[in-house]
Amino acid sequence: MTRSTLGWIPILLLAAGCGLGGGSSPNPQSSAFVFITVDKFDPSSVSSNVAQKNTDDTTAVTLRSNLRSPGLTTPSTLDDVVITSYSVSFSGPGPVPAPFTRAIIIRVPAGTVANGTVSDNVSEAVTLVVVQATDKRTAPLNTITQTFQATATITFRGTDGRGSRVEASGGLVVVFTPS
After folding, report:
1. CA–CA gap between residue 90 and residue 100 (Å, rounded)
2. Domain spans of the chain?
3. Which of 8, 28, 109, 169 lies 20 to 30 angstroms, CA to CA, from 123?
4. Is domain 3-177 annotated with CATH 2.60.40?
5. Which residues, 6+ apart, have CB-to-CB distance to 175 below 8 Å?
């Protein structure tokens, strides 16, 4: 290789590390070297009894950190992600509550590589509020008379160790009952 050819190698590696090398992720515009995905909600659906006006309805979430270019880089602490907020919005045929955002701290580790496989890159299960008790005491939920289903979309936002923004969303079914 000539000296001019070698000069392009760092630029190509940088472009691949920034997600410019193709593929898809939850936030393709991000300059982060990692992206996060929702591994699971537990339970995967939530029952919300609107008559229990002083009780938040919750689920637990597990998030996963994924390298954008796992063949070019190995995880480091700079690839750890810290989620600092989540937003819940609802869609469905019934009278759904207004969207809300809450602050939270969830550390999603970058993991380790052994034999070409990334492991230990999931967060601990963290409990989230999906339906707020205050929403059960106000319209439109305090007026429901029939059971209905809605979809809750939960969007997680945070940064990696380099300060780049990361975001991922997941959804689950919420069954609202009047009593």
Report:
1. 10
2. 3-177
3. 28
4. yes
5. 45, 46, 47, 48, 147, 148, 149
